[in-house]
Amino acid sequence: MYSVDAYQIAASISIRECKRSLTWELLFSDGDELFYKMGNEKFVYIFQYGMVGFFNHTLEEKRTILDSIKPFCKGLKDERFSEEVNVVIEPEKQEVSFNKVIIPFFDYEAIRLIVLNASQSVALDNYFDITEQLLGETNEHTKYLEQKGKLDISGNKLKRFIGRVLNIKNEISENLYIFDSPDITWDNEALSLLNLELKKTFDLKDRYRYIHERLEIIKENLELFKDIMDHKESSRLEWIIIILIVIEVLDMLILKIF
């Protein structure tokens, strides 16, 4: 039995720098991912969005690999989200269940799919946590609006908050291809079926939709806050204009009288 472990170790990892500096045997690469063979039946998968997936590594080996990757990371995380899956080889059998995957023979492409889906599951855990924090902050402002009839956030802070939400939405769209299938599954029915079963078992699509829906709720609230703030600013400008007109009229009257 083999173990698959995936960890969110950073906010991002420079794929270009890793590819340039790491001397391991590279089996697959694109602009966002690197899949290396690390020895006999050992692999490591590096993702641009701060994920690292391991296949069949000891704890000490994982620590050594992570130490090699850390120089290319931004926003290292102390508390790491993780996922663990066991892989079993049984001839003429392919089956995916919770925390266990059975494949008919040792195939590094099948292993890559397993590590990929486990890594995306961990990434969703991370984005879920971020989304819940953003929703909690939004709810605090909404409750204050309900109780006081006004917002407790300034224009600049609101703009930064909106920026955070939009960046998270963009990151999820760019980094996770939950609804797409890797190229290796297009012409291989067994790998295509394995990929679909992995997505189903990890509940990737429903979790992705849930996060997306929560972000939409947050976005709608922030747009309402912005409308309230714009209306308040518009009212302030109207009063300034009225006051200026009154001053000008008074000035004209004073000139006529005196």
TrEMBL record:
It comes from the Bacteria. It comes from Cellulophaga geojensis KL-A. InterPro entries: DUF155, RMD1/Sad1-interacting. It holds the Pfam family DUF155. Residues 44-211 form the DUF155 domain. This is DUF155 domain-containing protein. PANTHER family: REQUIRED FOR MEIOTIC NUCLEAR DIVISION PROTEIN 1 HOMOLOG (PTHR16255:SF1).
